[in-house]
UniProtKB/TrEMBL annotation:
<dbReference type="InterPro" id="IPR003439">
    <property type="entry name" value="ABC_transporter-like_ATP-bd"/>
</dbReference>
<protein>
    <submittedName>
        <fullName>Sugar ABC transporter ATP-binding protein</fullName>
    </submittedName>
</protein>
<feature type="domain" description="ABC transporter">
    <location>
        <begin position="14"/>
        <end position="257"/>
    </location>
</feature>
<dbReference type="InterPro" id="IPR027417">
    <property type="entry name" value="P-loop_NTPase"/>
</dbReference>
<dbReference type="Pfam" id="PF00005">
    <property type="entry name" value="ABC_tran"/>
</dbReference>
<keyword id="KW-0547">Nucleotide-binding</keyword>
<dbReference type="InterPro" id="IPR050107">
    <property type="entry name" value="ABC_carbohydrate_import_ATPase"/>
</dbReference>
<dbReference type="InterPro" id="IPR017871">
    <property type="entry name" value="ABC_transporter-like_CS"/>
</dbReference>
<keyword id="KW-0677">Repeat</keyword>
<dbReference type="GO" id="GO:0005524">
    <property type="term" value="F:ATP binding"/>
</dbReference>
<dbReference type="InterPro" id="IPR003593">
    <property type="entry name" value="AAA+_ATPase"/>
</dbReference>
<dbReference type="GO" id="GO:0016887">
    <property type="term" value="F:ATP hydrolysis activity"/>
</dbReference>
<keyword id="KW-0813">Transport</keyword>
<keyword id="KW-0067">ATP-binding</keyword>
<feature type="domain" description="ABC transporter">
    <location>
        <begin position="270"/>
        <end position="515"/>
    </location>
</feature>
Length: 522
């Protein structure tokens, strides 16, 4: 929770009332309300497609709202505002890409703020270096050399520099200002996140309002005073952050109560039947691992970057060059030589793969959602001419079943949010009725609502007897859905966790302290 020791000035610094925005007749913002007090850090949460990005673009002038009122510093502003007027009012933005120019120095990137306001073209670089050094020192970045190119900075240093530049722009205005941070921590390590939060608290202590846009509920709970949730283009609610649990916020985001009672039943539902056995599995990142998989089991595979864990699903699907080893399934057919096998042969054995890079490896981005969903089962709709009507009806049914949004199987797949793309991919592969489902980073780039839906699909699949292999770097995800987790270290199995050991902290601890062991089906 936020524990900032200051008392913010009274009143609202930013007021948004009834913002609405439509594109091609589709309303993406529908009467959104949002207020930020002076010195307040305010979180903004919502699924992909909830309207967060559109709201931010209405604030920075990229879009003009169709209806609504905007007040800054107690002054009601006429809409639409001229381009650049938002900056003059003290609204400053830091987006995921940070907006820095890598080829320029720290000083030059900071000076861009002044150049955008100044008519002077003569710069005293010696005095500017002194000024920049003083500014950096003021924000706890005194170790940064003003002449250092931004390309040489760490991700954390770049993020902090972008925020400093934005805050300096705020202070150049006549108002207390509003700082909008749009997913600022997405590429930062934990230490960098802590430094960024410290800077946010310092900035807000001087009266600047901060709008913190994020998918990370834990971060929002840690750094914000209040939080607003958008859902389907509307304001779902605003609450004091310290009054909200993680579950409360997730339920606000998805619009329904969560059913988590089945999470820890993963071990109990596993059958005694071994449905897949991998022996001497070798890839460029694996050095000969063995493991077995039982029906109804969700097996997690994880490790540090370079440990080889993310090779596992591709090797088991015959989709990685240089793979060696053998794979056996429950039928009477002989073991497959993975050095010569193809994905088609593995599909015939009832094995399916949902790849991590859904845009390049998982789907045809320019085709419709329906065409992507039915791509693997075209033979079900012929033998001669395709029965297009049946295909369209089936794909529309699956779009509804998997809650793909927009709920239109004719929508172009590439236009969907990450979470909806992933749900469509799951629908595509679940149609093949696999006995074994392989996944690589199944919730990467997916919002919290879609994440919960994906978890539910995987649990339901395991309950029906399907075996699931989930290769993921997300320890919390593995702890929630898996009955067993293999932790790889330098290409071999370093540890195996089951039962009470399956917590996020235990998984992370073991990842950093693992040594090779043998793994069998539990």
């Amino acid at each position: 929770m936020s524990t900032r020791p200051h008392t913010p000035p009274a009143g609202d610094n930013l007021v948004i009332r009834g913002f609405s925005k439509s594109f091609n007749g589709i309303r993406v913002l529908d009467g959104v309300d949002l207020t930020l007090g002076y010195g307040e850090v305010h979180g903004l949460l919502g699924q992909n497609g909830s309207g967060k990005s559109t709201l931010i673009k209405c604030l920075n002038g990229a879009y003009q709202p169709d209806t609504g009122d905007l007040l800054v510093g107690g002054r009601e502003l006429p809409l639409p505002l001229p381009a650049g007027e938002f900056q003059n009012l003290g609204l400053s933005f830091v987006h995921q890409d940070l907006g820095l120019i890598p080829e320029l120095s720290v000083l030059e990137n900071l000076k861009l703020v002044d150049l955008s306001r100044s008519r002077t073209w003569r710069i005293d670089w010696r005095s500017e270096r002194r000024r920049t050094a003083a500014v950096l020192e003021q924000y706890g970045l005194g170790d940064l050399d003003p002449d250092r190119p931004v390309s040489a900075l760490s991700p954390t240093e770049r993020a902090l520099l972008a925020i400093v530049r934005a805050v300096e722009a705020v202070r150049a205005s006549a108002n207390h200002g509003v700082l909008v941070l749009d997913e600022p921590t997405v590429f930062l390590p934990r230490e960098g996140v802590e430094r960024l939060f410290g800077l946010v608290r310092d900035v807000s202590a001087h009266g600047t309002s901060v709008l913190f846009v994020s998918h990370d509920i834990d971060e929002v709970r840690e750094v914000t005073d209040r939080v607003t949730v958008l859902r389907d283009g509307r304001t779902a609610g605003t609450a004091v952050t310290e009054d909200c649990t993680e579950t409360t916020l997730v339920e606000m985001i998805v619009g329904r109560s969560l059913e988590r009672a089945a999470e820890r039943s993963a071990v109990a539902r596993v059958s005694t039947e071994v449905v897949l056995t991998a022996q001497s599995l070798i890839t460029p990142g694996l050095r000969g691992i063995d493991f077995a998989l039982r029906g109804g089991e969700i097996l997690g595979v994880t490790g540090l970057a370079g440990s080889g864990f993310d090779d596992v699903p591709y090797a088991l699907f015959g989709a990685m060059a240089g793979t060696e080893g053998s794979l056996s399934t429950t039928d009477d057919r002989p073991a497959l030589d993975l050095s010569a096998v193809t994905p088609i042969a593995l599909l015939e054995r009832g094995i399916a793969l949902v790849p991590g890079d859904r845009q390049h490896d998982g789907a045809a981005m320019d085709l419709s959602v329906g065409d992507n969903i039915t791509m693997q089962v075209l033979d079900d709709y012929r033998p001669w001419l395709l029965r297009r009507g049946e295909m369209d009806a089936r794909s529309a049914e699956l779009v509804r079943e998997y809650d793909v949004r927009p709920a239109d199987s004719r929508a172009v797949y590439g236009s969907l949010s990450g979470g909806n793309q992933q749900k469509a991919l799951l629908a595509k592969w679940m149609q093949t009725d696999p006995r074994v489902l392989l996944l690589h980073e199944p919730t990467q780039g997916v919002d919290v609502g879609a994440r919960e839906q994906i978890f539910a699909v995987l649990r339901e699949a395991a309950d029906s007897g399907m075996a699931v292999v989930c290769a993921s770097s997300d320890a919390e995800q593995l702890a929630r859905i898996c009955g067993r987790v293999l932790i790889l270290s330098r290409g071999v199995i370093g540890a195996e966790l089951v039962g009470a050991d399956l917590s996020k902290d235990r998984i992370l601890e073991t990842i950093y302290n693992s040594a090779p062991v043998a793994a069998v089906a539990s």
